[in-house]
């Protein structure tokens, strides 16, 4: 179904936003730390028009679902909460938003850790900015999107996904300091490409696990007397904490240091090693991996042509990302075949 078929008139405007993959710096963004995402080719597009009946109407082509907002004092559930949240945060920021018809279509896989949620928010906010000519910049778009996700979708997310979706492109890596929002645009390691593989394992425990890790990090920072774990630079300091806070904090501190090492300039081989070290840290210290993800990552790491591989996103299932020598992309396909031979249903998400 098209916008025209759903709403019986053409859209006024449209805007798109990319999904993202994080190459390094996992579970650091809610610790005020450093991240290294890049945009993926898959995008979410939002078409927008004015609604004539005083109600918002949201349609997702992917879900083939139409939601009408009858009561603006009641936050809807599901995908509508992300769009409704974007409208509400704009209102809270002082803008007058009319009733809207919103049509969403996306090639970003949903719930695979490639941030379809941020792509939906950023595309929605960009489309509204365009429709109403709002004076908001791309950083503000990311911040409004994060507020929408936290307060309306109920996900206690950091700022990385929305900043990546709003500011990153597919040709560069975005270095972001999530505390100061200082950023740098970095080139990809020379002669490499990114391959993203979905493990085929759903992220069933992702929300509860994520919230628990956040709480553990807050507790660890409090015990160490710092505002956030980002303020610790020497991983040895974390040894003084009780189990498992010591390991949780060690992951965050070492992961921040891995990102900062990349910022200093590293060879492609070293970049790969840092990704491998990140996975080991997420598996052993942060305990957010699951055996199938470990299996897939291990197969990738042992495949010639692959410089490094790690789980990406919150973990507990979802996708992993590999740094592959250009021209050796078939190495990832071989690794995937070996993984699927063990009974899994993994698939390549990027390149698509
Ligand atoms: P991720 O951001 O890693 O893809 P999330 O669980 O954060 O996973 O976000 C996925 C949710 O975002 C979906 O369950 C849905 O509610 C919403 N969403 C994202 N893209 C779309 C879309 N194109 N149509 C409808 N809902 C979407
Ligand atoms: Mg998300």
Automatic annotation (TrEMBL):
Residue ranges of every copy of the GHMP kinase C-terminal domain listed in the record: 268-339
Keywords: ATP-binding, Carbohydrate metabolism, Galactose metabolism, Kinase, Nucleotide-binding, Transferase
Descriptive protein name: Galactokinase
Limits of the Galactokinase N-terminal domain: 2-47
Enzyme class: transferase
NCBIfam families: gal_kin
GO MF annotations, alphabetized: galactokinase activity
Name of the gene this protein is made from: galK
PROSITE patterns: GHMP_KINASES_ATP
Domain GHMP kinase N-terminal intervals: 82-167
Protein family according to the UniProt entry: Belongs to the GHMP kinase family. GalK subfamily.
E.C. code: 2.7.1.6
């Amino acid at each position: 179904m098209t916008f025209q078929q759903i709403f019986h008139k053409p859209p006024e405007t449209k805007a798109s936003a990319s999904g993202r993959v994080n190459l390094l710096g996992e579970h650091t963004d809610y610790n005020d730390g450093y991240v290294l995402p890049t945009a993926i080719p898959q995008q979410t597009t939002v078409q927008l028009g004015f609604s004539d009946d005083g109600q918002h109407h949201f349609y997702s082509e992917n879900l083939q679902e139409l939601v009408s907002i009858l009561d603006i004092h009641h936050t809807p559930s599901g995908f509508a909460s992300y769009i409704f949240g974007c409208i509400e945060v704009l209102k809270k920021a002082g803008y007058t938003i009319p009733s809207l018809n919103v049509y969403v279509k996306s090639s970003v896989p949903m719930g695979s850790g490639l941030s379809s949620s941020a792509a939906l928010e950023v595309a929605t906010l960009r489309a509204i900015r365009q429709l109403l000519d709002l004076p908001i910049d791309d950083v503000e778009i990311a911040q409004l999107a994060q507020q929408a996700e936290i307060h309306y979708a109920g996900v206690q997310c950091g700022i990385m996904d929305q900043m990546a979706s709003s500011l990153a492109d597919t040709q560069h890596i975005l270095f972001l300091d999530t505390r100061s929002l200082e950023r740098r645009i970095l080139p990809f390691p020379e002669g490499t490409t990114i391959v993203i593989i979905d493990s085929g394992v759903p992220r069933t425990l992702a929300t509860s696990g994520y919230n628990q890790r956040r709480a553990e990090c807050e507790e660890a920072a409090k015990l160490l007397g710092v505002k956030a774990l980002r303020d610790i630079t020497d991983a040895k300091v974390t040894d003084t904490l009780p189990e498992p806070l010591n390991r949780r904090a060690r992951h965050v501190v070492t992961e921040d240091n891995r990102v900062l090492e990349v910022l200093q300039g590293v060879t492609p081989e070293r970049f790969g090693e840092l990704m491998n070290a990140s996975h080991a840290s997420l598996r052993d210290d942060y305990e957010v991996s699951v055996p199938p993800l470990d299996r897939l990552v291990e197969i990738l790491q042992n495949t010639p042509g692959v410089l490094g591989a790690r789980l990406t996103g919150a973990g507990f299932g979802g996708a992993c990302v590999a740094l592959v020598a250009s021209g050796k992309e078939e190495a990832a396909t071989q690794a995937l075949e070996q993984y699927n031979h063990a009974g899994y249903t993994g698939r390549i998400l990027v390149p698509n």
